[in-house]
Structure formats: structure tokens, C-alpha cells
Write a structure and sequence with these properties.
Blueprint (H helix, E strand, L loop, with lengths): L2 H19 L5 H8 L3 H7 L3 H13 L2 H8 L7 H28 L23 H16 L10 H15 L13 H10 L10
Helix pairs in contact: 1-2, 1-4, 1-6, 4-6, 5-6, 5-7, 6-9, 7-8, 8-9
């Protein structure tokens, strides 16, 4: 097993532990979860902080959600495709939020790129987040493409609006009693607007 494979194995074992314990997780606990000796961690990473930063980098990656989006059948109606896409993206964002929230709550303020280092061009660092979002938008646009002729906007623009609504749904509500839109409500607004009878409002 080379260093990159060892790093990937350690990060995979660390992710659920970091989400649960934040920065308080010990390298000993991570090592036990990975089935390796603790010293092996420090042959792959400089210190625990670097392990935590690698976990954030992995959580920021969109590989998993892109695979889920790619598995959605284009034979389903558009509303069904978008509902499945909404669930996949929601789960991805909640996984990321849980991990980052646990780290921040436990005092870790690191990041996946060290000061002065150039981030890798795979969209998995804060500086590459725009690239990740563009890849995510393109994947959603592919799900919308079969209905291009029925749309007022291009699939790419519809995908951008869809993701914008979904991201906004997961943010802090404006008022305490505001309930977030359900996926069904979000998709209904996207596909049909807010009017029960379009053209009836003055």
C-alpha cells in the first residue's frame, strides 16, 4: 500500500469519528478504526491537524454525490428526477455540515490547504469550490436535458436555480417559525412558480 492509499484509508476511517467527536477525536481512536498502529498515521500525515484538514478536503469533494446523480434514471418524469437529485445533494450538504460543524464547535479552524500552498485543481478546497459547484450544476443539468424543449430556460440555468433554491432551503430561516420548503414544495415552485393560476396576479 503506497502513501496515498494509506492516507485515503485513514481519512475514510476518520470521517465518521470526526463528525461525531470533532477535533477531540484522538489519533489512537482513528488508528483503531482503521485497523492500523497509531504510528502509521504519522507516517502518512505530519500531525492530527493535517488528518482533520484531509477529512474536510474529502467532505468537500463531490465524487459521491455525482455518482448518485449519475445513477438517476432519465426515464423518470422530471419532477421525480429532481426530487431524487434534491435528496442526493441534501445528504451531501448535511454530511459536510455535520463534519465542519463538529470541527468548529471543538475549536478546529484549519482548512484543507495550508497558507502559501496552491490548492489542487480538483475543486476540493475552498479556493476550488466554484469548480465543484459548476460540476454539480452540470450533473443536474444532464438530468434536466431530456425536457429542454419544454423549458423557458436552458437546462444549465434551471440547474443553477434548482441548486440555489436547495442551498437556500438549508440556511438559517429568516424567522424562528419559518419551516424550510419540503423537496416537493421546492420542485413545485421551480417547475410551476408561486401562482396557483399563472397569469391571474395583477
Amino acid at each position: 500500500m503506497n502513501v496515498e492509499q494509506r492516507r485515503a484509508m485513514i481519512v475514510a476511517a476518520a470521517l465518521p469519528l470526526v463528525a461525531e467527536y470533532g477535533a477531540a477525536v484522538t489519533t489512537g481512536r482513528i488508528a483503531r478504526a482503521a485497523g492500523i498502529g497509531e504510528a502509521t498515521i504519522f507516517r502518512a500525515f505530519k500531525d492530527k491537524s493535517e488528518v482533520l484538514d484531509a477529512c474536510v478536503t474529502e467532505a468537500l469533494g463531490t465524487d459521491h454525490v455525482l455518482r448518485e446523480l449519475g445513477s438517476i434514471s432519465l426515464d423518470e418524469p422530471l419532477a421525480v428526477r429532481l426530487a431524487e437529485a434534491a435528496e442526493a445533494v441534501r445528504a451531501h450538504l448535511e454530511r459536510l455540515g455535520t463534519l465542519v460543524g463538529a470541527l468548529h464547535a471543538s475549536g478546529h479552524r484549519g482548512g484543507p490547504a495550508r497558507p502559501g500552498e496552491r490548492p489542487p485543481p480538483d475543486g476540493r478546497t475552498p479556493d476550488g469550490r466554484t469548480q465543484s459547484l459548476a460540476t454539480l450544476r452540470d450533473s443536474v443539468a444532464e438530468l434536466i436535458e431530456p425536457d429542454r424543449d419544454a423549458l423557458r430556460l436552458s437546462p444549465e440555468k434551471v440547474a443553477a436555480v434548482f441548486l440555489g433554491l436547495l442551498f437556500a432551503r438549508l440556511r438559517t430561516p429568516i424567522a424562528e417559525d419559518d419551516a424550510p420548503l419540503s423537496p416537493e414544495e421546492l420542485i413545485a415552485v421551480l417547475l410551476h412558480g408561486i401562482l396557483t393560476h399563472p397569469g391571474s396576479a395583477r
